[in-house]
Design goal:
By secondary structure, this protein is of the alpha+beta class. It contains 26 helices and 29 strands. It is globular, with a radius of gyration of 32 Å.
Length: 851
């Protein structure tokens, strides 16, 4: 590095910059508050030019600066940081801030509530609005890169924008603790941490971390700041890698503002990262040598910390740690912590990651993940784990067998999720008339998924048998007892989500038998509720629902008082919330209280007059969607913002008015939109003596008959006509909007509950006529929100298009022509060609919320 006087001389004699820019550069260099590299970057010099200016090598200087003015002109055409920030959308109105979660050197993490989707989020903002340009660019890159890395173990980014004039991005909020907190707790001997985090669990956490980094490498991204504090372990087993602010984009698969510009690239010699977890090339500032194997070293340093409870190198300050990374050899984990029972194979994996020569390390994180997986899947190589209290070798072997089975169980669950996604995609692209060859991919996925689930059941039984025997032989073996409870808890939650109450009760009973103190609420079948409502003067009534005579009915009622309010404990089950406030529309929704969990709702009431006549406000929030009985694709949690859904399907009276208005303007199109029979050609309605279309009442049509015999394009045309006529936006609901409105947040099987009765809806057994009954004729066929005629009446078009070669749309609901002895559950879906018409196929409306 040259002296500042020499740098100024070179600038004045060799670089041609506009006078104002040169004056600003000279002032900044003399002032000394910013590093020369940053000053020159801001002036528009490329990385090569900056290295040339700062180099003591005369030839390097000549080569780098021979075309400096041309390069500067090109770079200065790029938008400024202020321009980039100004382009971001203001997201302030969408989020309600709830306080600070954490803060770091550059930014703060805020807890917030998404008012559109009704869910908790975390928002990262720069700590100060006057942050330097390079800091803002790195912040933008973190959001852009993380948003492109779609992986279960990488923090998802929902949105990038401006929050109160500060650059911010919105992320998923995870309840849990950092890996740093876990390791610190283990080192201090905290009983709760030791009970929850055996060596086996830590290795499974580490394996998931490797998979996240491996995915990033496949997308051409190096993290460069891997450390325990950047890894979150959620309360329900999630492992999430955070903080990509120092990442380096080395491929073309992922792009960011910084990676596509020469101006902001890291200058050779800069040390980026956390010294205790840096690879030697990173600690030496060798920017050009940073690659996937640099992250492998960082992963190895984390593994070292997990095994020994200390990082590979420590020192009084960062300078001392960097010196040790560059000069000293790593002490093997087995020697550093001989009392930690570290297996030789693990020791060797860790030391290979920490090789000084990058070529001696694993080639990438994928290879490292495979090595860890092989270790976890090999019971004969597993030694005792930290926290194990049993001394009898037979008990140790039993415990190791159980732990190995659980590791295999986790791998199979991951495989099942991947194959299930493959199956869903394959099914979605199939056409009804496709030959067998086209269906082979879906059939193969079904077969493989069935085989995986069979093995999951077998491995689960092996794990339970081995761990239960271990606990019987040694009741004080805390790791085995805790892991057995975790296994029962996961099965209990899956059973509840699938609506299998008998299985859920069984696993809750098994938890009761082996509870290690963590599952008192689950065993008691109790949860809690937190609810906040706008406005704050709302009255909230909580009503417990109980299924009697196949229908959910009110069991008891409690006034909760003014929001926000928490109710704890509550018996697990389905509840109804009724909210009222002066000047606001009444609001109703349901909520599921799960054992051992707190259900959190944030709801918004709407001023009177805002909800259109004939529509119901479906509040924002999550709900359970999907079939309870599909052996391959289990139910899932989905989220939607507020919207308005029509109480009834569109009626013949409504459609007749549209048709006659259209006939006055474009009679040819009206003739195409008239309701038709299943052949799509024969009109169901004719014109009267005035030339207007009229209802054939002699055939059973009434003004309140739900419209049938129309295609999805006819439905869209009706929506366009009504929107133009009223000034509001109407459309056909999406598939998920239809499902939430009909099933409630709990995902009930039928509108009224989980049990079928043909007398509760207009189905083939209860309505043996040629046309459907008038809307609302079956009062029992009403959803928790009050949406009518979902199980029976008419099937309904949605606006959700299906994949595939032909133009098809999802159709939902049952009709007066469908249903059998077990009914037609509300998760049933069909795919119909867009021009399909049928005597039991109609539609209803969604009105978009406009505030």
């Amino acid at each position: 590095m040259i002296e500042s006087e020499e740098l100024l001389r070179r600038l004045r004699t060799r670089v041609r910059l506009p006078p104002a820019t040169m004056a600003a550069v000279e002032s900044a260099l003399v002032n000394g508050r910013r590093a020369p590299e940053e000053v020159l970057q801001k002036a528009g010099l490329t990385l090569e030019q900056i290295n040339g200016l700062l180099s003591a090598d005369r030839m390097a200087e000549e080569k780098a600066l021979q075309d400096v003015s041309t390069s500067i002109t090109t770079i200065r055409d790029e938008p400024s940081v202020d321009d980039l920030v100004a382009r971001l959308v203001d997201i302030t109105p969408r989020f309600e801030l709830q306080g600070e979660i954490a803060r770091g050197a550059m930014g703060r993490i805020l807890a917030a509530w998404d008012l559109h989707l009704g869910r908790p989020v975390a928002i990262k903002v720069l700590k100060k609005a006057s942050a330097r340009d390079l800091e803002q660019i790195r912040f933008l890159e973190e959001a852009q890169v993380t948003g492109q890395l779609q992986h279960p173990n990488i923090m998802p980014v929902y949105e990038l924008g401006r929050l109160r004039d500060q650059v911010a991005f919105v992320m998923r909020r995870i309840e849990g603790r950092s890996l740093k907190t876990v390791v610190s707790g283990l080192r201090r001997g905290k009983p709760e941490i030791r009970r929850q985090f055996s060596q086996l669990r830590l290795l499974n956490v580490f394996h998931q971390l490797c998979l996240a980094v491996a995915y990033a490498h496949s997308r051409g991204v190096v993290h460069r700041d891997l450390k325990p504090s950047n890894v979150m372990v959620g309360d329900f087993g999630e492992v999430v890698l955070l903080d990509w602010g120092l990442c380096k984009v080395i491929g073309n698969e992922t792009r960011s503002t910084r990676s596509t510009s020469e101006r902001w690239k890291t200058v050779h010699g800069q040390i980026i990262g956390t010294p205790a977890y840096m690879a030697p090339e990173q600690a030496g500032g060798l920017v050009s040598e940073i690659n996937a194997q640099t992250d492998v070293y960082g992963l190895g340093a984390i593994l070292y910390h997990l095994l020994t409870l200390r990082p590979p190198f420590v020192g009084k300050n960062n300078r001392e740690i960097v010196a040790r990374v560059l000069q000293e050899d790593v002490v093997p984990p087995m020697d550093r912590a001989p009392n930690r029972s570290i297996a030789t194979q693990l020791n060797n994996i860790c030391m290979r990651c920490l090789s000084r020569n990058a070529n001696d390390r694993y080639a990438n994180a994928t290879a490292l993940a495979e090595a860890i997986r092989n270790y976890l899947d090999s019971p004969e190589t597993m030694t005792g784990h930290p926290g194990t209290q049993a001394s009898d070798s037979n008990v140790d072997i039993l415990a190791q067998t159980g732990m190995a089975a659980i590791a295999r169980h986790q791998t199979l669950l991951e495989d099942a999720a991947l194959v299930a996604d493959e199956l869903q995609t394959a099914r979605a692209t199939l056409e009804p008339t496709d030959p067998a060859d086209f269906k082979i991919a879906a059939w193969n996925a079904e077969r493989r998924l069935g085989e995986i689930h069979t093995e999951i059941a077998d491995v689960f039984a092996q794990a339970v048998n081995a761990l239960m025997t271990t606990v019987i032989k040694d009741p004080d073996f805390t790791d085995a007892r805790g892991t057995l409870c975790d296994l029962y808890l996961s099965r209990h939650e899956r059973s509840r989500l699938a609506g299998n109450q008998e299985q859920a009760a069984y696993y809750r009973r098994m938890l009761m038998e082996h509870d290690d103190g963590r599952f008192g609420a689950v065993v008691a079948n109790e949860g809690s509720l937190y609810v906040d409502v706008e406005p704050k003067n709302a009255d909230i009534e909580l009503v417990r629902l109980k299924e009697e005579n196949r229908r959910f009915t009110a069991y008891d009622s409690t006034q909760l008082g003014a929001p926000p309010v928490r109710k704890d404990p509550l018996v697990a089950g389905v509840y109804e919330l009724r909210m009222s406030a002066p000047g606001y529309e009444q609001l109703l929704t349901t909520v599921v209280i799960d054992p051992g969990k707190c259900s959190r709702l944030r709801l918004r009431m709407l001023p009177q007059g805002l909800v259109p006549a004939g529509f119901i406000h479906i509040p924002a929030g999550t709900f359970r969607a999907g079939s309870r009985y599909d052996p391959y694709l289990p139910p899932s949690e989905q989220a939607l913002p507020d919207y308005f859904m029509a109480r009834y399907p569109v009626t013949a009276e409504n459609y007749l008015q549209f048709l006659n208005d259209l006939s006055d303007d474009v009679p040819e199109e009206a003739a195409m939109r008239v309701p038709r029979t299943a052949d799509g050609l024969t009109a169901l309605w004719g014109r009267d003596e005035t030339g207007q279309y009229s209802l054939p009442t002699e055939l059973g049509w009434t003004t309140q008959t739900p419209i049938v015999g129309i295609s999805v394009d006819d439905a869209a045309a009706y929506c366009g006509w009504l929107s133009h006529r009223t000034g509001q936006t109407y459309r056909v609901p999406s598939e998920l909007e239809w499902e939430k409105a009909s099933r409630g947040s709990e995902g009930r099987v039928f509108s009224w509950g989980d049990g079928w009765d043909s007398g509760f809806a207009a189905c083939a057994e209860s309505w043996p006529y040629q046309l459907p009954p008038d809307v609302g004729a079956f009062e029992t066929d009403a959803s928790p929100y009050g949406i009518s005629d979902c199980v029976g009446g008419v099937r309904e078009w949605t606006g959700t298009a299906a994949l595939g070669r032909s133009r098809r749309f999802v159709v939902r609901g049952g009709s007066f022509k469908t249903g059998d002895a077990t009914g037609q559950p509300l998760w049933t879906r069909e795919l119909s060609l867009a021009d399909t018409t049928a005597m039991d196929l109609g539609f209803r409306l969604v009105c978009e919320l406009q505030l």
